[in-house]
TrEMBL record:
Known cofactor(s): Mg(2+)
InterPro entries per the UniProt record, alphabetical: ATP_grasp_subdomain_1, PEP_synth, PPDK_AMP/ATP-bd
UniProt family annotation: Belongs to the PEP-utilizing enzyme family.
Record organism: Pseudotamlana carrageenivorans
Annotated EC: 2.7.9.2
Keywords (A to Z) from UniProt: ATP-binding, Kinase, Magnesium, Metal-binding, Nucleotide-binding, Pyruvate, Transferase
Name this protein carries in UniProt: Phosphoenolpyruvate synthase
Annotated metabolic or biological route of this protein: Carbohydrate biosynthesis; gluconeogenesis
GO MF term set: ATP binding; metal ion binding; pyruvate, water dikinase activity
Residue stretches making up the Pyruvate phosphate dikinase AMP/ATP-binding domain: 613-939
Amino acid sequence: MVLGCLGLSSLVTAQDLPIEKIKSQIEAYKKDVRGPYHRIKWYCDDGTMREPKDPCPDNIGGIQHASLKTEVEKLGNDHHIYFSNILAQNENEAFWDEAHNNSRLKQYQLVKFLQNADDGWIYRRGQFYRGAMQSEDEQNWGLEFYEWLLKSNQRTKGHFLLLKQSLTDIPHSGDTNLAQKMRSESKVLGNEVPSFMKLRIKIHGNPEKRDIASVKDYVSKHSSTLSANQKKEFNTLINTMEDYYKPLDIKDIKNLTNKLSSTHKSKITELLNAYSENASAKDQISALGSVLMYIRKHFDALSSAKDKLYALDISNKIEKTVFQTSQEWQPSHLSDMLEKIDYLSYIAAATGLIEPWEYDKANHNLTLYKDKNHLTIAELNDVLGTSRSIVEWSAGMVKAVYSETVETYSQFEPKAYGFIDDRIRSSIALDLGNSVAILGKYISEKSSIKNEVIGVSKPATIRGLNPGYAYGELVVVEGSIENIDFSKDKIYVFNRPPSGLKPVAGIMTVSEGNLVSHVQLLARNLGVPNAALSQGNLDDLAKYNGKKVFYAVSTKGNVLLKTEKQMTSEEKALFSKVERSTNKITVPVNRIQLDQTDILNMREVDASDSGKLCGPKAANLSQLKHMFPDHVVEGFVIPFGIFRKHLDNPMKGQNMTYWEYLKQTYQECENMKKANKTENEVEAYQFSRLSVLRTAIINMDLNRDFIAQLREHFKKAFNKPIGETPVFLRSDTNMEDLKEFTGAGLNLTLFNVLSEKNIIDGIKQVWASPYMERSLKWRQKYLLNPEYVFPSILVIPGVNVDYSGVVVTTGINAGGKDDLTIAFSKGAGGAVDGQSAETRMVASHSNQLLSPSREPSFLSLPKTGGTKREYTTFEAPILSEKNMQSVRDMVAQVREKMPEQTGSDYRGPYDMEMGFKDDKLWLFQIRPFVENKKASSSEYLKSITPKIDYKQHIDLNSKI
């Protein structure tokens, strides 16, 4: 099912928040001696409040802390934005905030980060307001909160990473987040003292214990140029670094272990006994990793909240040591590097960055090196692909947990974007990513595959997803993708593509979403080069923002990105005017039967009606209804002819019909082209005119006979009057799923619409959607006669599926032509909207996990209409073996029956949308899977694709 208008946005959208007002409040609080605080009061246990000099009586008890300014409290009440850094005033359940995806807890962590990163942030002066908070009260609250929270496995299930991360911020045992403090202090000094920036970058990106000596040496050499205050700040940084790099005191860990009341105490103690301070870095990590994984796997089985709290504290203390120790493990040979990547991937699973079941799926490739003297290039590429995936999954987990909160805050505080980066860089994912980059560089050299990307320090971490080439301005989006006016002539680098992406020249993305999202399918169809890169790569490319570049991705996935000056004559020739004018198609107007002006039941339609009476969605789903009646819902079709009949009505505000207005618009566009007007001038005129048409269609009056038919067909198809069954209104034009083009996701689908008024209004919105700017821009890359694009509408009830997604009946970027590429997410509309879906390559007797889901929220379909947003976690796979077998069986039948029953000569792969409810498979759509043959067969792309001997053996004792 298509998410045409309902993306999964952040908790609070920009339209809901008074952004400018919040920005001004933040600036005011930074200057206020009390910050966001109002005044200090006593809060007594009986619910009463007293003045500072009138404490709560001993027989009642209470605590003293600051209250917040009225407008700060209003932000919480009206918009669920909480700036408070005082814990003691919170109720446990409200702070855990389960209904809002634990937003308040995450906001507390984010506010703490901003305080460290921005000199106190809104508490810049308020932090010195005496009596605002009491550290003892905060500690006691933290302990009581965790004892409440950890009592319930139901509350904490799936939140292992969040629990561990929260313990570094919420006071409960006297610990502080030293890693964050160290990075923040070094960042401040890097900004103040330009010559320190290089060392600051080292501390931020590749921290090691020897950095302490480097900082001391820097201060000694530059003492004469540093101010007294700067020297003081450097001493503070050195003290923080020395605290952070204190060696693990195994006695402290064992003392914590001895507090455990469960039977697990002896096992953890036994595992800790394998650790020795005198052992090598590898052996230390091996010993401590076993403790971390034991805690991870047995966490839910611990008998009490206190035991769980001790176990999490043990895990955090050990994780910090492993993070530091991994920097000291410097492999010199290939076998050592493969072993280190294997160990660190295990640590990623043990610390919550990936799920244990995900690690189990990846384990085969990660351990290929064991008991072998050599591996082939093909096997090394398997290891590299899997280890890259572990890094991506790890970063994706942190983003899945925190991105919603960060996106909300970033609307009014851009520094919030640094929070996710800070969390990733303080985890084992940092060194794992560095190690994978070294391995990638080594394999690239051995197999002659090299990414040539300007200004990027670790190009081996970039991988091509879709072949193609492009030339244009490079746009590096470091922040939010909201409100970006995408251009077809530009190449975009961002964290994740928006679901409503307009045509662009090229794409590079940190979060690739999934291989079968609408954006990815359109990219493949149009030959738009597309690659996945790391956050570090994106940061490196930022300095080229606004520069003209050439960008290419080969069929083997190697990536080129160079400046305009570096382009060869062959590359410049690719963008001649002659080349750009080719590869356009014509909508087959002669097939359209516009005299069909009655609604049709799905049972009256089949695949042969595609492009005649209705679009392919309705025709093909109707065909599936004939073939698999128990797996397809009932429904009806509003054919092209009904829309075309309405266009003959007078257009309000114009002295002509809608159809005459449309024809006049395109005729004038042709006249402008003949008059040598620029492409941009013609486009601006067309969009302006069609915007007026779109608004007029939305406001048109529907014909009375059509409304009567509509009411009649609701009763026939659904056995209920209109307004009692929520339905999907799916736009279905005659230009979708042509042999040369797929219109995946270009037009509007309305979810679960219930009332008669909303259904009638929705029909007009769907009819108007082909005239939206995004839809027009994608179409105009291909169509010679765009005025003959007509929408039909498929009307079907929603199935409130447990999970849904897309199946492409061939391998994409991996696997063979008979394999299946499957991407599923929880809820309705899964996978197709650029979500981080669970993606698998499924063969006849096996399946490979390409990526797990990292989509924290999903849509469900209540019977009352509309959609409900719900949240999920990732501790179990979405698809079961039973589900995957059901998909295999269904695809086998489709491959056999579809050509036979439709009389089609099409034998290529299909793109199918489906879902599962209580393990029953439901079919929602089928269409040909269209790839851009021009891009995949380009002679230029072939020329930059190296010939690789995948059977070449590489000695594991080789130096790396």
